[in-house]
Amino acid sequence: MPGIIMAGIDKAAIAFSIAIVAIGVGVAFSLGAAQDAVPIVSAPSMSTKTIEPKTQADPFADLAEKVKQEAPKVEEKKMEKPMEKSVEMEEKVEMEEIPKDETTMEKPAGPTTHTVNIPVGTSVPGCEESNTCFTPANITINAGDTVNWVNTDSAAHTVTGGSPADGPSGVFDSSLIMAGAEFAFTFNDSGNYDYFCMVHPWMVGSVSVN
Questions:
Q1: CA gyration radius for the chain?
Q2: What one-character-per-residue DSSP string does the chain give?
Q3: Per the omega criterion (within 30 degrees of 0), is the bond before 168 cis?
Q4: Is 114 annotated as a binding residue?
Q5: What's the mean pLDDT when you consider all of the chain?
Q6: Residue 182, C-beta contacts closer than 8 angstroms, at least 6 positions apart
Q7: Would you say residue 28 has pLDDT above 60?
Q8: Contact by Cβ (8 Å): 161, 194
Q9: What is the average pLDDT across 8-29?
Q10: InterPro entries this protein is in (predicted)?
Q11: Residue 80 Cα to chain centre, angstroms
């Protein structure tokens, strides 16, 4: 009887041991399946490669450099201009301070009228010795100028182009100029013009036209 009881106990112990092992295997199997079901997340890999920024060529670099080089030249020119202007002003002042010589004064612009007098007493010979039958007896004018003869003598006279030896030239002739009267003629062409008085042939004069 005791042997039968011990045999039963041993069978129960073996069955219990098998049950525990089965439970352990089932638990292990469940845990393995759970681990397989969990998604694997891999950590992102960090690249150690350094990316250098690309250097883009500046299209205005050459222009900027050129402007930088030209800047000192522009400044130099700005400094030179006031100096040049001051020199010109000084020269102008010096020219204004120099008085003009009367002998080098410019000729008046435009036609001019010149006066020649027929003095008193020329109707009597003698004025030819001092060349004062006409005053002035010889005159120089410009083309386009006019000569005006004024008779201040008491006798009548003429102003006739030509000479006593050759006679009238036909260029100009006043006919008789009475006392107190006058005669004017404009010389448009250059040249030398002799004239005389037909009433008093010793009276001679000349006009030179430039």
A1: 68
A2: -HHHHHHHHHHHHHHHHHHHHHHHHHHHHHHHHHHHHSPPPPPPPPP----PPPPPPPTTHHHHHHHHHHHHHHHHHHHHHHHHHHHHHHHHHHHHHSPPPGGGPPPPSS--EEEEEE-TTTTSTTGGGTT-SSBSSEEEE-TT-EEEEEE-SSS-B--EEEETTTEEEEEEE---B-TT-EEEEE--S-EEEEEE-SSSTT-EEEEEE-
A3: no
A4: no
A5: 76
A6: 148, 149, 150, 151
A7: no
A8: yes
A9: 64
A10: Amicyanin/Pseudoazurin, BlueCu_1, Cupredoxin, ET_Amicyanin
A11: 16
**Residue pLDDT, tens place only, 51-97:** 555 555 555 566 667 656 765 665 555 555 555 555 566 666 556 65
d(C-alpha 48, C-alpha 42), whole Å:
18
pLDDT at 165 (0 to 100)? 95
Q: Which fold has domain 113-209?
A: Immunoglobulin-like (2.60.40)
Predicted local confidence at residue 18, as pLDDT: 75
- 0.85 exceeded by pTM: no
Q: Would the pLDDT of 141 be above 60?
A: yes
Q: Which two tokens stand for residue 111?
A: 């036609």
Tell me whether residue 203 is annotated as binding: yes
> What confidence category does residue 30 fall into, taking pLDDT thresholds of 50, 70 and 90?
low
Give the Cα separation of 30 and 184 in Å (integer): 151
The answer on whether 197 is annotated among ligand-binding residues is yes
- 33, two tokens: 């399946």
Between strands 138-141 and 146-151, the pairing is: unpaired
Total length of the chain = 210
Nearest to 151 by CA among 169, 170, 176: 176
| Structural tokens at position 149 | 């003869």
Whether the pLDDT of residue 103 is over 50: the answer is no
